[in-house]
Amino acid sequence: MRTAKISRKTAETSIEVELNLDGTGTYDNQTGVGFFDHMLDQLSRHSLIDMTIRAKGDYHIDDHHTVEDTGIAIGQALVQALGDKKGINRYGHFALAMDDTQVRAALDLSGRSFLVWNCDFPSQKIGAFDTELVREFFQALALHGGITLHIDLVHGVNSHHIAESAFKAVAKSLRMAVEADPRMAGSLPSTKGAL
What's the pTM? Predict the structure, then answer.
């Protein structure tokens, strides 16, 4: 079973994440940040990774620590659930269209963390949510998940659509990357002998 359970507690947040890479996209995400929950639901549904998240944070300050620490915990859970990575596709990419917006994502489950972020928002807020936190989430996910992650906004004018397209494009890319490749026959998708 490619599953994981992570518990992360700091003076700022308390995060619990459960993942099943071979799920159906079932989700139950409660972080206390409404728009972020909506994005995490998209991440689960479109990656087909079952996801249950419980988070409590220092909301009296802002949502930054909760969003970033959730990204850290999800990244750690992905590493745990992927194990030795034998037999996976490793790479994933997707161009996602949503109304006015198109976002492209490409990723490599290489163990080498890197984020390329070319995704500007026309507004600083989506409701009460700071749009800069979208990048913070993906930075934390890439860093702690050992993911090389590129996210590029092709075009878009609506901040909600841009954020949602980014989460969905990454989700579809993750789905592709974590899938087992039957031709790999359980071997490591690298000539280095390690990922």
Answer: 0.97
